[in-house]
């Protein structure tokens, strides 16, 4: 049974997810950020001035969860939330900018650490195949 499961992409996706979550949690510990908050920081870092509604839609999140997370990030000093007209716009504080750089870099550092057993060509092939599989899945939904 174990052998059958290990022959699925799903098995490896979950293994990579667990490893990436643990690695990221360790890297973000110095900021006091959790793994889940990382995605909010990255989104606002890449889309300064976005609204919570835009972020909720683009990240495919529950509205309440997004609102609670934004409020926590504002209270913890990572994010700004300023009313402009009828909506709020989000930005990063200097602490949020530092966290953003670390959050962004953690993806590349994890890849470098975990794909070091592959040649550069193999890494490129793997990424290309994964991108192709992700595109195929999006097109079929």
State the end-to-end CA separation.
30 Å
Which structural category fits the helices and strands? mainly alpha
Stretches where pLDDT falls below 50 for ≥5 residues?
Answer: none
Approximate helicity band: 55-70%
Q: H/E element string?
A: HHHHHEEHH
Strand order of the largest sheet: 1-2
Number of folding domains?
A: 1
Strand content: 5-15%
How many strand segments? 2
pLDDT averaged residue by residue: 91
**Form type:** globular
Number of helices: 7
CATH architecture level-2 label: Orthogonal Bundle
Query: How would a textbook summarize the main sheet?
Result: 2 strands, antiparallel
Give the CATH class: Mainly Alpha
How big is the Rg? 18 Å
Q: Quick one: CATH superfamily? A: Winged helix-like DNA-binding domain superfamily/Winged helix DNA-binding domain
What is the CATH topology assignment? Arc Repressor Mutant, subunit A
GO molecular function, one term: DNA-binding transcription factor activity
Protein name: HTH marR-type domain-containing protein
Organism: Faecalibacterium duncaniae (strain DSM 17677 / JCM 31915 / A2-165)
Keywords: DNA-binding, Transcription, Transcription regulation
What do these coordinates show?
This is HTH marR-type domain-containing protein. Keywords: DNA-binding, Transcription, Transcription regulation. InterPro entries: BilQ, HTH_MarR-typ, WH-like_DNA-bd_sf, WH_DNA-bd_sf. There is one protein chain. 70% of the residues lie in helices and 9% in strands. With 141 residues, the protein is mainly alpha-helical. The protein has one domain (25-140): Winged helix-like DNA-binding domain superfamily/Winged helix DNA-binding domain (Arc Repressor Mutant, subunit A). A two-stranded antiparallel ribbon has the order 1-2. A hairpin with a 2-residue loop joins β1 (79-84) and β2. α4 (52-58) crosses α5. The model has no long low-confidence stretch (mean pLDDT 91).
